[in-house]
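Please predict the structure of the following assembly.
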Amino acid sequence: MPVTIKLPTVLRPHTGGEKQVEAAGGTVGEVIGDLVDRFPALEDQLFESEKSLRRFVNVYLNDDDIRYVGGLEAGVSDGDRVTILPAVAGG
Amino acid sequence: MTPEVRDQIVEHCLAGRPEEACGLLGGVVNGDTAEATVCYPGRNLAASRTLYELDPKDHLLADRHAEQHGLEIVGVFHSHTHTEAYPSPTDVARAPDPFWHYVLVSLKDDETVLRSFRIRDGQITEEQLETPTLIGEL
């Protein structure tokens, strides 16, 4: 099922400048996995370990932070939108 | 940045005292510079005088708004309530995007000071922050 993934500027050097990519899968994790298969340099940027996103990466499924809707296991449907954003913080 | 954006940044930072305030800037990238035309005031989840953590939901909403208006998120602003308008070690360590412009706002003196920086690979570079004023207003 095609899902649109929107990428922040910080990750676009790893996708040849693409800001939006179509990816396939039944869950958020599978969709991001499909993205990483095509742009392997993203893996280190997004994942702490094989199954765990980096702490400073926020992922939204449509309007919902995936932490509150099942994480990487959250199911996706045709036409859903995944947005990846960096956590913004400082002192 | 536009005078309106500058005013909104200052207003949001003053309203956030005594805690740090933060938000994003929407605009147009032009090579190594950017023009900020929209201010997205955000909530500081850290609710702290020395730290800020932009509410991710505010980030998502700003990102959506910018996209719908053909803009990009070009940077972030936050206040230092008792120190200079210069990136702290935490700001450098946590800088989320080397393409962004980092606007620091110092509220330590009566006169609010705004300065803009690039933060790349742990290196801080100050850049010129211009606020064009319409000639008719002078």
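The mean pLDDT of chain A is 95. The helical segments of chain A are 28-38, 42-46.
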